[in-house]
Design brief:
By secondary structure, the protein is of the alpha+beta class. The chain contains two helices and three strands; from the N terminus they run ββαβα. The longest helix is centred in the middle third of the chain and has 16 residues.
């Protein structure tokens, strides 16, 4: 296996108001993303781009994709490279 992306329902159902005034049916969440290091540079961005095209074609009602970066593991570089917008952070235990 070289990679997987899991899209699904929002884990934080009240968070979509920060992104859009549309209903939550227009929004899905990228819940998990894993790409093997064997694929080299930019693989994550290319893979996400292909996923977004498929979602746009098969689910035109989806207008937004939300995701959360784990600050303990990085700063969301892949999301920045994929043109996600940054809406802030919060502290956790």
């Amino acid at each position: 296996m070289f990679g997987v992306a899991v899209f699904g329902n929002l884990m934080h159902t009240k968070s979509f108001h920060q992104i859009t005034d549309y209903g939550k049916e227009s929004l899905i969440e990228l819940n998990r993303l894993w790409i093997s290091d064997e694929l080299g540079k930019n693989a994550e961005t290319l893979f996400l781009g292909a996923c977004f095209k498929i979602i746009k074609k098969t689910h035109p009602e989806i207008k937004f994709i939300q995701s959360f970066a784990d600050g303990r593991l990085g700063c969301g570089t892949i999301y920045k490279a994929s043109n996600f917008k940054y809406y802030g952070f919060h502290y956790t235990l």
